[in-house]
Every structure is written in C-alpha cells, then in structure tokens.
Amino acid sequence: MKKDTFSRFLQDPDFTRYTTVPAVQFLVDTDYPLLFFACLIKKLRTLIHVQIVGIDLQNVTRAQLLSQLETSFLGQRMLYWFKHSADVPNREREFWHEYIRTYNGPHCIWMCTPKKTAAIRNGVQVDIPSAVVHDDIIHMYTLFENKDSSQIVPTLRVQRMQLSVDTACLFLRYVSLLGIGSASLVQSLLERIVPPEQSLFNLSSAIFARKPQHLYAVWKELYQSYSPQFWCSYFSEVIWRAAQYVRYAHAGDMVAARAIAYRLPFSFTRSDWRYYSYGTLTKAHKLLCTIDFRLKNGGSYELFDLFLIHFMCGDI
Questions:
Q1: pLDDT tens digit sequence for 223-239
Q2: Contact at 8 Å (CB) between 57 and 159?
Q3: Which site from 103, 152, 154, 311 is most exposed, i.e. has the minimal number of CB atoms within 10 Å?
Q4: What is the rounded distance in angstroms from the CA atom of residue 139 to the CA atom of residue 165?
C-alpha cells in the first residue's frame, strides 16, 4: 500500500498512478467534499482513456456490483467510482470497505472512507485534508481551470488563506470567471462566498438549543449580511444535515451520523439531537422549500423571522 498526500495527488499530470492500481482509498474527515469530487471526475473524463463508471451504492445490489467488479469484457479496464458511500447502511458500507482492502482487479475502484478505516493492500491511499492552504489551492486551480496560475500565486500567498476543499473549488470557479487583480479583490470575493463560520455556528447552536434570546441577537447582526437566497440555502443545508444525523443516531449508526455532521454545532451532535425527531426536521425542511418558492415570487427576510419563531416554539 502506498500513501500519498493531497498535494501529490493534485500534481499527477495524467493520474496514471491512480488509475493503474486495483484501488484508491480517499481518507476524509466528517466533511465529504462533494463539489471537489464532482469537479475531479469531470476533469478526469478529459484526461484519461479509462472509462469512468459512477456507482451509487444505494441503487445497486451487492451481487450485481460484485459481478461487474470481478469480470472484464475482452480485457477492458474500468474505473469504478463509489458514490454516496456514507449514505448506505453501516453493515453494507463496512462490507465494501473490507472488499476494496484486498481487491486485486481487473478494474480500479475509487472510494471515500473515514480516516480511521484500515488501509488497503493493493493500491494507493490519498489523505484529503479538512482545509487547504495556498499551495494546494494553486494546484487545484491549475488542474480544474486548466490555466496558468502565475498571476494568482502572489495574491494567494499574501492572503494566507485556508479554505475547506469545497469552498476552494467554489472560490476558484469565481476567480476563473471574474479574473483576479489584487489582494483587496480576493478579500472582497472571499467575504462574499465564504461565510463567517463561527458566527454561523453560533446561530445554528442557538436554533437547535432553542435559545430565542441568543438566537435573535445573532440573527439581528447577521441577516442583512447575506441575501435571502443564501439564508434559504444555509438553513436548508443545516436542517437537512440535522435530519440525517438524527435518523442515523436514533438507528445507532454513529459512524454515518458523524459523516454527515459538517456544519452542525457541537452542542447538537453531543446532546441536542436527542430532543428532535427525523419527522420534525423534515417538516422544517419542507417549510424552507415553501419559503424558497415565496422568495422567488417577491418574498423577503420576514419569511425567515416567521420560520425561526415557529421552530423556537416547536410549532413545526
């Protein structure tokens, strides 16, 4: 088994190292970098000659997939990308973790696993960091945008930025579209697309702890800093993650629960989740869908005030 850093992975010119082995194991924290892998697979389709087959482990039977992985038509080699592995039942996920540990071909399997998962025997292990700094961001820019990074290197080094992998992908897309001219422009762009995580954690902590006085104080400071569309997206993501966390936690599957816990406050994952049901949180999410519809038809921030009042009072 070989273990590579994220930087080495990004700098491979044609990804031969990662497509000629039986398996590649991506080690991730609780935050699964969905946008990064979407960009990566899209880019790979233009770089490599091996056919990429996306596999949703929730929509295929074990017998069907084993048949595909263990046979090859006329020696043709495929790259099987296991998607949504964190969403499958715990026993099924553990089966596939163990399977790729000893997989020896004839194809190549890519799969994300938690950092504590046992290492594979025949392949490469790539450690995906929870946050990336300027060097890795530059490597990502070169890979995904296929552009010369020399113009953005000085500015990014001055900024000393540290972003999540997915936020870096989003930031680089804006840079590619808008261009980059100065450190002040980068800072302005970051303020627009990178939310103040600590303030948002304070907000979500107050929501799930049902502390209205603290909630409305934080909400008053934050709500005009972002558009109604941002808040609809933010609340929807947090409530959806909370619903999935509660579903897994009540079923006793804490591995899957922790995998979905990104952006959820510590107080919720430690204890507050016990006060919620999956049904209550899905109803809250449906209410946010209604708010989204009304926003697109002339609604305003007051819709979120109403949502927060209902949530605080347990009327959802």
A1: 777 778 888 888 999 99
A2: no
A3: 154
A4: 12
Percent share of the chain, pLDDT over 70:
85
pLDDT at position 159, please?
54
Residues 291, 232: contact at Cβ < 8 Å? yes
Q: Is the pLDDT of residue 163 over 90?
A: no
Selected residue with higher pLDDT from 41 and 300? 41
- The domain locations on the chain are 2-127, 134-193, 197-310
Q: What is the pLDDT of residues 248-297, one digit of tens each?
A: 999 888 878 887 887 788 888 888 899 999 999 999 999 988 888 888 88
Please choose, from the candidates 106, 110, 140, 142, the residue with its C-alpha nearest in 3D space to the C-alpha of residue 126.
110
Domain at 2-127, CATH from 3.30.110, 3.40.50, 3.40.190, 2.40.50:
3.40.50
Domains 2-127 and 197-310 share a fold: no
Topology of domain 197-310 in CATH is Zinc Finger, Delta Prime; domain 3 (1.20.272)
**How many angstroms separate the CA atoms of 278 and 298, rounded?**
31
Place of tokens 């960009």: 39
Closest CA to 143 of 161, 123, 165, 163: 165
On the CB side of 311, CA atoms within 13 Å amount to 27
Q: Find the mean pLDDT for residues 117-139.
A: 81
